[in-house]
Amino acid sequence: MITIWSTAQPKLVSETFGRMLKGFRPNVPKHQFHLYKEDAEPPVVPTGEVCLVAGAKPLAVLQKAGLAPKGRTITSLREKPLKSPNNGSFLMTFDPHSIANDPPNYDILLCDLRLADRLQRTGSTEVLAGNCKWVPNFSELIEGIASDYAQTGKPVDVTVDTETMGFYPWYPDRDIVSISFTHKRGEAHVLYLGDLPGAEKVVEPQNGSVWDQVNWLLTSDRVKIRAANGKYDMIWIAEKWGIECTNFSMDTMLVGSLLDENRSNSLNLHAKLFTPYGGYDDAFNQTQDKGAMEKIPPEKLLPYAGGDTIAAQDVADTLKADLLHDDDLTRFYVTILHPAARAFEKVERRGLVIDKEKFEVLGDDLRKTIKQTQDVALGLLPQKMRIKYKDRIEDQIAQGKNPLLPSILQEFFFTPHGLNLKPYEVTPKLKNGQPVPSMKKSHLRQFEHVPTAKAMVAALTELDAASKTLSTFVEGFLKHLRPDMRLHPTYFLAHGDFDGYDDDAGTVTGRLSAKDPAIQTVPKKTKWAKRLRECFPSPPKKKLLSCDFSQGELKVVACVANEKTMLKAYEDGLDLHALTGAQMAQVDIKEFLSWKDHPHDKELAAAFEKHRGNAKPCNFGLLYGMSAEGFQKYAWASYNIMLSIEEATEMRNAFFTLYPGLLGYHDDMRKLVKTFKMVRTPLGRIRHLPTIDSWDRQARSSAERQAINSPIQGCLTDMMIWAIALLEDAYPGGELEIVAMIHDALIAYIPEGEEQLWAQRVTDVMSSLPFDKVGWKPQLKFTADAEAGPDLAHMSKIKLVA
Description:
The chain is of the alpha/beta class. The protein contains 29 helices and 24 strands. Among the domains are: 2-122, Uracil-DNA Glycosylase, subunit E (3-Layer(aba) Sandwich), CATH 3.40.470; 131-325, Ribonuclease H-like superfamily/Ribonuclease H (Nucleotidyltransferase, domain 5); 357-475, no CATH class; 564-659, no CATH class. The strands form seven sheets. A six-stranded mixed beta sheet has the order 6-9-8-7-10-11, with helices on both faces. Strands 2-1-3-5-4 form a five-stranded mixed beta sheet, with helices on both faces. Strands 21-22-18-23-24 form a five-stranded antiparallel beta sheet. β4 (82-83) and β5 (89-93) form a beta hairpin. The protein is globular, with a radius of gyration of 30 Å.
């Protein structure tokens, strides 16, 4: 029996744990709920039974009764059973009420509930061990699969996992250390390929080689391969063994992220949530260096390597069943996400060519600029401040750090020792009873029109741009240059915890991200952007091709919101930035367009550029319902457009007068998320927003904002990765080499002299996505733009046939 003791209301306790216990079927443990009462004694927990203590107040009762150590928190006591007077056990966990404001606590409660179940079933919290065994080859495994297939006539589910030397296969001296397969529950066949003694050595079977066996397992139509973060394994296997897996059908990380993007979708967490093997890898993770698997003794490696596939097989069963309950999400995974993950295996393997010499020259120039700009900025400080901070400044410079510390700049800008300016923005902190001025770069830039501050703001802006370019894009990118002189970024199509990273990677919205390096962040419009982009040339006899959707985000909004003015504008072939600009200028669109490049009136031509420029922050900021105050800050931070609050309010009112359908969309999404705690993109992906029920007003407001923008932003990225998957399938010959996705633009190498041909082919696929396969019928056609050139800095637009 498991007793759940909580201060939460009985209905909340029953709903929360009832939902969790459904996942235990058919072996749901006996359980009961015990309501916390003030001054009541702890519940009686007989021998062999477990009480799950949910919350700080029940813990305090245990501490008062001497049954739990005083001064300890729930976090410090979790997963550590405490004995009851009747020889039962207490286990600590969080209050179910905390989930509303901190959704990841749901997973923690579920992990603790499974631990309580293990404790009351086995009398221990020790991890259930599967049957992991070293094998000389995969003959026995294949015979078992053949037997299962003969009985059912259906492909057999088999899970695969590799352990590797480091995390990147691009180094010739690094290889696969082991490969594990599971097809029977709780059993792993593990082949050891390392050099250390202690494991059964590889023995070739009589009828074929081990390579042939692995190739059969990964290509046979009698097998359906599963994996956790399978893109990683498939890249290693393809690079090191030349085997291209054709029967990979399910990735638990991707499916888990679709079902709940708010959690860390690692195999470690999934095992704790959905299997009896939770914690199988905890000790290994804490004691072993997973970046050097080849050095780990085989007897320590085996339970981990085999445990991966044993756990992943059970996880896959659970997640597949959950996914199949949602037809739209299933279609999204099968039609878009899984094919896209397979396509990005190829994208990562190809990598991007860089010009290392140009990178290094750029780095030298940036260092000179940083030194010169620092000297200029320090020279602008009053002499008394330079004397006062002389030691700190010299110490920062000696360490290679920025000497212009926030405390120094704060004194310069906002005290009588410097300019004594009145801040526009302050932090919540108080100093000597006074608000502390914000030191955000966007705040300081607002003083660039103040004559006494102009030189310092300019120096700081220059310094920031050069420092960012050097540290992130030059030194940062060169750290990840591989032996083939290419960058091979790792792309994340799911949100989760990945080996080799200290924090979760991927996004909760579905937007694509990359690491090692973060190639998607390469700038296009900063001062140093052109020099940086020159460092990305095309290979010999190739050209670079870049394609993106034309005003894709705005078109998605127009369709989803059914905003009539936007839809008609696009149907009539109008530029939406010009239409919004005309509204801001309070003139008819035809008259506004006549101002463009006006041959006789430079003022009209300048007014066109100004109002069209102002339209961009309107279209991309107000699109999602931003307040006037938020719009004012957004226009300055993102577009360097300074507006008064009156101007921002006027522009906001004019915008929604022009596009009234957006307000209806905003209201509909707010109502939807309050009812269902989630929203869905037009393609079927879900954004779960449980904090809409939070007691914290800011958390609720954030959930509302995400309900409005997530379906749009996530949709556009999914459209692009879908297009990449379709292109990889349509052109497998190698003429089209997709090598990156930067700012929602596809980057590819194409044969020199065939720019028009491939631009047309790629944009045709992008413009004709089969939306009917996922049940969406957009009112507009999503056209695409293309440009090509010898490097990313010198790209020319290509005129396409409609």
